[in-house]
Amino acid sequence: MGTQIIAQETKGILAKVKTLIAGNRIEEAWTALKACAKPDDDFSLQHRYFMLFNKMPHDCLGLLPVRVAFLASSTVDHFIEAFKFWMAIEGYFAQIFNSTFNTLEQAAADADGALYAFKPDFIWIFTGCRDLNLAVYPGDSAVLVREKLEQCVERFTRLWQCVRQNSFSIILQNNADAPQIRPLGNFEGQVSWGGTNLYRQFNVALGAAAAAGVVVLDLDHLASEYGKARWFDERYWYHSKHAFTLDASGFVAHQAACTIRACKGQAKKALVLDLDNTLWGGVIGDDGLNGLRLGHGTEGEAYVDFQRYILSLKNRGVILAICSKNEQENARLPFIKHPDMRIKLDDLAVFQANWNNKADNIREIARILNIGLDALVFVDDNPAERELIRRVLPMVAVPEMPQDPAEYIRALDCHKYFEMAAFSLEDAGRSSMYRENAQRTMLQQQSTNLDDYLQALNMQAVIHAFDDFYLPRIAQLINKSNQFHLTTTRYSEAQIRGIMKSPEYVCRYFKLKDRFGDNGLICVLILKKMAVGILAVDTWVMSCRVLGRGMEEFVQNEIVKIARDLGLSMVEGYYLPTKKNGLVKELYQKLGYELAEETATRSRWNLAILKNSVLHKTFIKTVPAY
Amino acid sequence: MALMRDEINRRLEKVFQDVFDDDRIKLVDTMNAGDIDEWDSLMHISLVVAVEKEFHVRLNAAEVGNLKNVGAMLDLLVRKAT
């Protein structure tokens, strides 16, 4: 049922793509198609993706041409459709030569033949389990088995040498997808002459034999990951010599396209990571070191494993950078003090923790590392941040992250961003090299088309006087928040109830919703009517998750309106510095207040209220309820 | 039975339109590969795979090749489709 609903949704998107193409809105069509296509969508969908892609004028898409020749022992024509499509997704326009079915040796040997005349960048020797003629019998000695396997591998090494004599193409070589069917059952995995073990040994030997310029495509892994019971579809082998199910075409094509990207040195190079709720559960600035979910508990273990996964990327040469909305000191604390942090400060090449928008920070990271934005992958649990980067920096890869940290690794891994085609010891040391080079100027403000982004977020806010229903949340926000809290006032629920009822006070809470969902009650305001026409901001506390969306200005506008309605002539704000609220030190200044008084423990800010006071520009719409 | 055949015909027509990416295709029983330019042996397989998906049927290896025209497909689907 679930898949059918998804299929319906996909069909709707495809119809839209078709309309966009008809209207010659190619870029939009391509963006929509790219966003909807998944590697494991079935063949009928892959076919339709290809048909739509094929209708687009390809020169609009900015694809790099790559010439790929197939030497195949099975029918690959249908697979090639999916392959061309997934190559395009990875940024390549694949020009294809398909050698006559099952003429591997002849085509490779023919120096003047069509294969080499095509001048391929890649020659893909597309074979599988049926290409191994292993005449091994039960009880054969280990020595005999090894000899027979060597002969098998030799067929391929000879083929590679033959290609190499005629061409500098990179050779992609499938290994063998060990069959699902095991005549000798489970025992095949125990003895060296057992069928399953023969394929395993062959694949190990094939990888070991691969010289420079030969890249083994691990078909056996793909078949396992896809599920061998689904992978093998004998009907289409008997009918038309398809080696595996057509439904796996997108899945294999995606892997191949990512491998080709790695061969061309265009795999992603750096991983840019958010901190709160990405590397650990909780918000360091609010929950403190001991409040983080990291190390034990269900989520805590998941975050540790996610960090381990990231470290294995780092150990093979992926550069790590942090991009977090946080105070520097807070952000660094877990790396130094938390016993369950696997990632240490030394593992990181760049550490951007500040309150600037993340697009600027990511630009800065790319600049410091001196790598292209298109070499970056950005991981953040916050959908609004992801959407910002997708809009402002579309060349940065931004994987969709699930709610549950237990699924973070899968969500990142499935994109195959960091494929590799070779490994050198230099790779292992790369990240420290970048780290050393990266000690340079930080901070560079540059506004992007942030306004477009804010507009597109379609934010709606509810402003309401305190009520009993939300009292617990109001108390929680006032008492647990540290960062966006100008006066760090702490009030019990009973106290708040008193304030609510007192005519001296005006209290408001704010709820914010955007196109990604409901952020809930994220801001609390307690205003006090003072003598001589002054409205004092007693408490202004906000959840940091909505920073950078103009919520501050929106709330300020509300303060002004309230003051005006009450006929008051001045708003007075206070900032009481603490270790944790440096974030709002300049808030009043930014909002146009004037400094009236400043001591070590408190600064006081004034804003005159005029009849025609100009309100701040805001992209947040006030609604009575949602 | 005739009604069911009409219903299958309607769904099959949509499959043809999707596979060949041509909304103008209208099915008649005698229609075969000669009537649609793109209907070659490769497209035939794409078509059969799409038919299997749409009607939740598994055609046996021989049937895949034997569906020479629309009428034959309909006959088979009337027997097998769910």
Which superfamily, in CATH terms, is the homologous superfamily of chain B?
ACP-like
Average of pLDDT of chain B: 88
Q: Class of the largest domain in chain A, according to the CATH hierarchy?
A: Alpha Beta
Number of helices of chain A: 24
Structural class of chain B: mainly alpha
Low-pLDDT runs of chain B: none
Domain module tally of chain A? 4
Q: Terminal Cα separation of chain B, in Å?
A: 13 Å
Strand content of chain B: under 5%
Helix-and-strand structural type of chain A: alpha/beta
What is the CATH architecture annotation of chain B? Orthogonal Bundle
CATH class of chain B: Mainly Alpha
Tell me about this structure.
The complex is a heterodimer of chains A (626) and B (82). Chain A has 626 residues and is an alpha/beta fold. Chain A folds into four domains: 36 residues; 219 residues, Rossmann fold (3-Layer(aba) Sandwich); 183 residues, HAD superfamily/HAD-like (Rossmann fold); 165 residues, Gcn5-related N-acetyltransferase (GNAT) (Aminopeptidase, 3-Layer(aba) Sandwich), CATH 3.40.630.30. In chain A, 42% of the residues lie in helices and 17% in strands. Chain A has 24 helices and 17 strands. In chain A, helix 1 packs antiparallel against helix 2, helix 1 packs parallel to helix 3 and helix 7 packs across helix 8. The longest helix of chain A is centred in the first third of the chain and has 25 residues. Chain A starts with a helix and ends with a strand. Chain B is mainly α. Chain B has a single domain, classed as Orthogonal Bundle (Non-ribosomal Peptide Synthetase Peptidyl Carrier Protein, Chain A), CATH 1.10.1200. Helix content of chain B is 61%, strand content 0%. Chain B contains four helices and no strands. The longest helix of chain B has 18 residues. Chain B is globular and about 30 Å long. Classes of the chains: A alpha/beta (626), B mainly alpha (82). The interface between A and B is medium-sized, with 19 and 17 residues.
